[in-house]
Amino acid sequence: MSHVLSTYARFPVTLVRGEGTRVWDDAGKSYLDFCTGIAVCSLGHCPPRLVHAIREQAGTLLHVSNLYGIPQQEELARVIVEDHVKLPGKVFFANSGAESNDGLIKTARKFGHARPQLDGSPRYEVLSFTKSFHGRTLGGINATGQDKVKEGFDPLLPGFRHLPFNDLAALEAAIRPETAAVLLEPVQGEGGVNVATPAFLRGVAALCKKHDVLLLLDEVQTGFGRCGPTMAWRAIAPEIQPDAISWAKGMGGGFPIGAFWLSDRAVDATGKALSSLMGPGSHGTTYGGNPLACAASLAVLEEVVEMDLPANVARQEQRIREIIASWQLPVITEVRGVGLLLGIGLDVSQFAVPEGKLPAAFVCGKLLEAGLLVPPAGPETIRLLPPLNVTDEEVDEALAIFRATLSSLVTDH
Ligand SMILES: *Cc1c(COP(=O)(O)O)cnc(C)c1O
Predict the structure, then answer these.
(1) DSSP tag of 359
(2) Which residues form a coiled coil (predicted)?
(3) Does 218 qualify as catalytic in the annotation?
């Protein structure tokens, strides 16, 4: 009997070792890992540079708290701002994606106080989108546009509304005096791999500017190379300028770390910077930005840039799309996504799904039996999240398993 709380319906396999794109279970069977701990192990398993950085830092200094200076945190913030965001701003370090999004939501509330409504009452509302996912904290589930994460947790927090994704007219109609911010994923990950269109992203940015509303990007899953450019919005509408961005997942390569960035842009006529609204005492964390987590993330971000992983991501996306198109399998309805955050849509009427199982989760179980780890994204989509440094051979092998498994499911039907 397990003493672990049963919040997850787990796949029936226990993983004990990993190397590169491969993991092994406790019976010694190996799997190609195109799940990567849900877009976390961006360099694959146990990449030497990351392992070395963690070992070195673990033997030097683990943790001191944010009461003292932390050089690794300063350096990581510099790298994020100068080499990745490339817009002036400041970074706060957290430990997860949900926490980083809570930071964005708190920033929106601060901003709403600094830039109140005409009658002087603060603005507070955060608009987000259906099928979004922003994490499991109370802030995160309220921002998330999916009912399933909220069941049983009401009363919900005030100040959140959800709008249809990629529908600019709906957003324009929804913005009202209370509205302080718009929060969105450039590519919705958990909600089924739904890509914001360039026109939508540009339109959202323009509406935010027009109504003095913050544009908050949740790049927790998409950031740091997963979608090619190190920031996913640049793969879609590179000219937009977000006010704030959250990250986690891939930025630590498997070491838990999250962060959010706030722009230095002025929020009023006195030139007060948005980033200055979160001043001493406004926010905090005990663990966030500790030397070990920052040393790990620095190693990951250096490797992404030095090995030019964005180029490999673009190349492998192209290959995956071409190979899957060449099969002409009717059970595959489409390939959505950007870079190596890809969703394969399934026509679930073409195979039999056991009673009580969601089709995508069922197919993921079959792929696991065949030696390929992938997560679902929504009920009818399989996600491909290989490491950013995945090779041609590994992609070919994974897709061969994918094709054979789907073909046999359809034939058996
Ligand atoms: C995973 C995810 C989160 C939550 O991150 P945690 O580290 O699990 O708290 C938030 N937003 C997006 C877009 C995610 O994919």
Answers:
(1) H
(2) none
(3) yes
